[in-house]
Amino acid sequence: MKNVLLKIVSIGLICCSAFALQAKPILTVYTYDSFIADWGPGPTIKPAFEQICHCELKLIGLSDGVALLNRLRMEGKNSPADIVLGLDNNLIDLAKKTGLFTESKIDISQLKLPIKWDNNIFIPYGYGYFAFIYDKTRITEVPKSLDELINSPQPWKIIYQDPRTSTPGLGLLLWIQKIYGQNSTQAWQKIAKKTVTVTKGWSESYGLFLKGESDFVLSYSSSPGFHLLNDKKNNYAAALFSEGHYLQIEVAAQLATSKQPKLAQQFMQFMLSPTFQKTLPTTNWMYPVIDIPLPDVYQQIPVPKKSLQFNAEDITQHRNQWINLWQNAVSHQ
Fold it and tell me: Which domains does the chain have, with CATH numbers?
């Protein structure tokens, strides 16, 4: 009888343990694929947050930031996501108008950004500057302006991302519009003559560039740091342009339909902690949004002297018009 009781108790304990494991709450975060890549911040962020939340952090990667918003608009209030991480300052007004997001009740007083931030729905976690990256062993006469890149007689080949699916692609669209305004059509027509391909997301385009498919690729001014730190190579650099570089601030937001609102808010505050922020400069290759020291490799990465941006409302108002302008300009080449 005693052995039978022991077996029953043991089975009961095993069942309770299994139930406890199954009962662990799950926080679902939509993000972009490079965030959850082996070399991205995801593999470090996930265990660090799980240790303090006693939950499972489920990171789901899509191709890029614009694709994240497109996915959420399609899923609507039925989305399984609690948080989206990977939108940016160019999408926040459009995202807000969906009505899918709710305000975060977290302390943002410690934010340190190139611009003032007073939005409590979309919380910044990193920022950077769009730039064209090149290989110094292939390009010896480096363009000193975007205009020089576009108008040069050099047979340079360019790869960039689609502004309909990619936040860097949208950034380039706005960059061109900011500099050229009413002459943007002509600028895009000239870019089209140098374009190898337009990819859906950043990872695909940067991979093609590293394979030697182009001379320049749209990325970030900090991207060469990856090669300096991980590959011990100093042959990649950002072309710094006299007109200035378009600023990107990446943000996260909680969905109003989140099934784990308390955990979502805990994660949003965790994003602004030194634990989270210190992982970004050498994994996501973005600047932190709080005042912490940068890794030594950043001493070798020049920062653009001038940043450019549109306000979010102007982007929402003109985005489709500018995308149509781009499509018409490049399709007639």
Answer: 2-127+249-299 (3.40.190.10), 128-247+301-331 (3.40.190.10)
